[in-house]
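If it is no trouble, might I ask you for a protein's amino acid sequence along with its backbone structure tokens?
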Amino acid sequence: MIRRDMIKAGILLAGAGAAGCARAGKPVAPRYEMPLESAPHERTLMQWPVAVDVYGKRDLAAVQAVIVDIANAISAHEPVALLAARGARGLDPSRFSGQVEIWDIATDDLWCRDSGPTFVRAADGELAVAHLRFNGWGNKQPHPNDGQVAARVAERLGLPLIDSGLVGEQGGVEHDGAGTMLAHASCWVNDNRNPGQSADQIAAKLGAALGAQKMIWAPGVKGADITDYHIDSLARFVGPGRVLIQVDDVVDARDPWSLAAHETLGVLERATDARGRKLEVVRLPDPVDIRSRSPDFVSSYINYYVCNGAVIAPQFGDARADDQARAMLAGLYPGRQIVQLNIDPLGASGGGVHCATQQQPRA
């Protein structure tokens, strides 16, 4: 999730010293590993938003409607567990398909990618939750319930909750399922999450939590949006050694997002993965003629979600770009149905489909 509640006080590119690659400790066999998102799922988890102070009543209703649409689209392919307190504002179970189960776990907002559990799996199939402690993106938003979601899900499922020693969000790190991670340093090497910890220390802890041996750091942008620039709206691992990034051909020197995106592209083009292979970088351009006219709207095709048998992706009203994104995703995920949804209320709130979902791998 990026850009929501733009912070006007200064836009800083993270220090150039954080760019490039860092080893996440010695390459030892991990107890648990986070599978690639496209690996088989047991279910998808989502959260029901109730924070009127964040959205206002009208926008909250629009955002809730999109959550219903996403949950129902995913439920055609795998079960969905919607986290929501009993009697939560606006919750009507009759709006959901029969494959959506409501779990009585209180929430504040919808961003399950960030406050939900990060599932990891052992070689014998045993699941656990690697706890990336959520603090409201550096205490920028109240999170009395969302800060407890990961632990409450682990308790409900009877899974170990393993403290990573880090504060952060899964939307801020990509893992290719084969030992390589990708992240913007701006949302990890940041005193609002992990004061006093270096990039190498954070990479080592993330590697231990996710079962990875190598981190590819790109600088990112500090202080321009609520997340400090999550990677999952810019670049995603499609598979080991393969990255999809949304970036135009020409950098706009007046736009910090364009500068940062091209800086990340340059890092990826120079990087190697945990096995020493150069990355295959696939580029997708931005849409142009979209429905929204909001200057802070997040029109990220990259913020899609891979479930069993399908890819749930956004469309923004630019017919040519929407079709191009659909065709590219179909080529990258053969055999999966590409389902495009109008998720404009989420884009206006700073996120997308991936931000609103969390996969539970099959044990």
In short: Residues 139 and 350 are 17 Å apart (CA to CA). The chain is about 25% helix and 25% strand. Confidence is low (pLDDT under 50) at residues 1-13, 21-29. The first helix runs from residue 52 to 75.
